[in-house]
Write a structure and sequence with these properties.
two-stranded antiparallel ribbon; mainly alpha
Length: 102
C-alpha cells in the first residue's frame, strides 16, 4: 500500500506512504485503515484530475479489511453476552440444571 501511495506525485499525495505502518499498532488497526483508504482514494482522484484521466477510482473493496476486525469485535462481545445469559439461566438456585433432552 505504501508503494501505491508513493506512486502518486508529491503535490497530489495527501499522506506519505510510510504512514501505512500505523496499521501494525493494535488500537490504530481499528481506525487507521479507514483514514488511509480515504487518503489513497482522494490522492488518486487528484492525480487523475491533474493528468486529465477520466477513469473512476473505486477503492470500496479496501474497506473490507478494516470492517472485518470491527465486526469480529462486535460479535465477540455480543456472543459472550448471549452465552453468559444461557449459563445464568441454566444455573438457578445454586443447582446446575439443563433442560430435559427430548
Amino acid at each position: 500500500m505504501s508503494r501505491e501511495l508513493n506512486a502518486v506525485s508529491q503535490e497530489n499525495r495527501i499522506l506519505s506512504g510510510g504512514l501505512v505502518w500505523l496499521n501494525i499498532l493494535p488500537i490504530m488497526k481499528l481506525i487507521w485503515p479507514f483514514i488511509f483508504n480515504s487518503a489513497l482514494k482522494n490522492s488518486y482522484i487528484a492525480e487523475f484530475k491533474s493528468k486529465r484521466i477520466t477513469k473512476e477510482v473505486n477503492l470500496n473493496s479496501g474497506l473490507i479489511y478494516p470492517i472485518m476486525p470491527l465486526l469480529l469485535v462486535f460479535l465477540s462481545f455480543y456472543g459472550s453476552a448471549l452465552f453468559s445469559d444461557i449459563e445464568n439461566r441454566a444455573y438457578q438456585n445454586g443447582v446446575f440444571s439443563m433442560p430435559p433432552y427430548k
